Amino acid sequence: MAARPRIKDVAEYAGVSPKTVSNVINNFEHVSERTRAAVQEAIDALGYRVNIAGRQLRQGRTGMITLAVPELDVAYFAELAKHVMDEAAARGRTVLLHSTEAVRERELAALQGFDAQFSDGVILSPLALNPRDLATRDRRLPVVLLGERPAGGSTDHVGIDNVRAAREATEHLLSRGRRRIAVVGGAVRGRQGTDRLRTDGYREALGAAGVPFDADLVIPVGAYHWRDGARAAASLVERGLGPDALLCLNDHLALGALRALHEHGRSVPGDLDVVGFDDIEASRFSVPSLTTVAPDKREIARAAVSLLLERIDAPDGTALRDHMAGHRIIVRESTGG
């Protein structure tokens, strides 16, 4: 096997110094176009590849970033992690993956970089941290938060407009004549978490349509798994609350609800419509297939990785950023699609 070409080899081929090759690779401005073209020709001819690991070590970096999410067995986070790893790999970075189980101590450990010598920065999806945790964190470690907009705006952030997304999902159900719409996983009180924001969007849609709000139709859950959705849907039917639609705040809840409704002899979308959130792969293969709010997971991953790498390169270079990714409603069989 031929030896891997080095900067010295590129320099000899192009007839320039190794320093000039380095300047071209690092895109320094003070290099003539003629010299830049000669070096690029040599790079292409020899198949030279930049030693990213060596460059990062010289800069005092590891080339690794951390992604910390609440649960890897929730498909949304697993799919998001795949996008983050793809985006990081395209930029020559490796991702260290951690599951915090939504435990505050584990999220705090992630916020402080676990063992910071192994990671240049952290992308964190927090559920248990409070505003003080974020405000008092060590600012030397670059961090990008996923999910809800952090209180006080002390950290770069990527998310979606959850109020708008839930409002649009509820409007879709209202457009189908549904009026007794239950929110599985919803919250009327508490801090501005995802559940509260999505419930707020639901209430906005009801108010705009002149449909009275019924707090009995907001069903909190202990977790956001299939079994929790099944239990919530079964409870709604057994208590005789008479919902004609379910807005489930993630697809796991919605898929569990579909099973429970089937077991209780309710047809979907005949007797009830069901809408989920997240557009996980399983939502396309359920029977009926699931109408869902689809966050742009690829955009979320791309923005999070880009913001983190920018912050790693220039810790104090820019103001805090708040990126809102897109979303759309994908209409499938569970609402007559």
Describe the protein.
There is one protein chain. This protein is of the alpha/beta class and 337 residues long. 41% of the residues lie in helices and 15% in strands. The chain contains twelve helices and twelve strands. The strands form two sheets. The protein has a six-stranded parallel sheet, sandwiched between helices. Helix 1 packs across helix 3 (33-46) and helix 5 packs across helix 12. The longest helix has 17 residues, at 297-313. The radius of gyration is 25 Å and the shape is elongated. The model has no long low-confidence stretch (mean pLDDT 90).
Compact description:
With 337 residues, the chain is of the alpha/beta class. It has helices at residues 7-14, 18-25, 33-46, 52-58, 75-90, 104-111, 131-135, 162-175, 194-209, 226-238, 251-263, 297-313; strands at 64-69, 94-99, 122-124, 143-146, 156-159, 181-184, 218-219, 245-248, 273-277, 291-295, 322-324, 327-330.
Helicity, as a percent range: 40-55%
For the secondary structure, the number of strands is 12
Q: End-to-end span in angstroms?
A: 57 Å
Low-confidence stretches: none
The whole-number mean of residue pLDDT values reads: 90
Structural category: alpha/beta
Which sequence of strands runs across the widest sheet? 2-1-3-4-5-11
% residues in beta strands: 5-15%
Largest beta-sheet characterization: 6 strands, parallel
The secondary-structure element order is HHHHEHEHEHEEHEHEHEHEEHEE
Oligomer: single chain
Q: What would the principal axes of the Cα set say about the shape?
A: elongated
